[in-house]
């Protein structure tokens, strides 16, 4: 089971690499690049979708991947990557503001 998962992850890594390069690509062309037939590529793409999506607490499906795609007929279209949210930076800025407010309040008490 472990070796099967490793092999699957290698294929998914290859798909991700090609999807990062193209904004759209035909299924036949991607299959040729990956050296697989089109039906195998469809299976790989479905596996990629399955592995990179999850269900949130409200029952909605969300993507965990930095690259997403959809298919229309035999064309694969890559969707823009999600911007990386920097929660740490936001909280550090808020902490710095709070410290500034506390220092101002301390100065007012001393005066």
What does this structure look like?
The chain has 111 residues and is of the alpha+beta class. The chain has one domain: Winged helix-like DNA-binding domain superfamily/Winged helix DNA-binding domain (Arc Repressor Mutant, subunit A, Orthogonal Bundle). It contains four helices and five strands; from the N terminus they run αβααββββα. The strands form two sheets. Strands 1-5-4 form a three-stranded antiparallel sheet. A two-stranded antiparallel sheet has the order 2-3. The longest helix has 24 residues, at 87-110.
Task: Please describe the structure with a list of short key phrases separated by commas or semicolons.
alpha+beta; two-stranded antiparallel ribbon; 4 helices; 60% helix
> What is the number of beta strands?
5
Strand order of the largest sheet: 1-5-4
Shape: elongated
Regarding CATH, which class? Mainly Alpha
Give the ordered list of helices and strands: HEHHEEEEH
What is the rounded Rg?
A: 23 Å
pLDDT < 50 runs, ≥5 residues: none
Overall pLDDT, averaged? Answer: 84
Please state the second-level CATH architecture.
Answer: Orthogonal Bundle
CATH superfamily: Winged helix-like DNA-binding domain superfamily/Winged helix DNA-binding domain
Strand content: 15-25%
Helical segment tally? 4
Question: Which class do the helix and strand fractions yield?
Answer: alpha+beta
As a percent range, the share of helical residues equals: 55-70%
Within the CATH hierarchy, at the fold level, what is the topology? Arc Repressor Mutant, subunit A
**Main sheet properties:** 3 strands, antiparallel
Cα separation of the termini: 71 Å
């Amino acid at each position: 089971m472990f070796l099967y998962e490793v092999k699957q992850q290698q294929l998914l890594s290859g798909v991700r690499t090609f999807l990062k390069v193209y904004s759209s690509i035909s299924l036949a062309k991607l299959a040729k690049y990956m050296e697989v037939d089109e039906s195998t590529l469809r299976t790989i793409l479905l596996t990629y979708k399955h592995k990179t999506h999850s269900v949130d607490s409200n029952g909605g499906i969300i993507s965990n991947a930095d690259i997403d795609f959809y298919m229309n007929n035999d064309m694969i279209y890559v969707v823009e990557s999600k911007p990386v949210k920097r929660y740490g930076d936001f909280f550090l800025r808020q902490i710095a503001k709070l410290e500034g407010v506390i220092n101002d309040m301390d100065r007012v008490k001393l005066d």
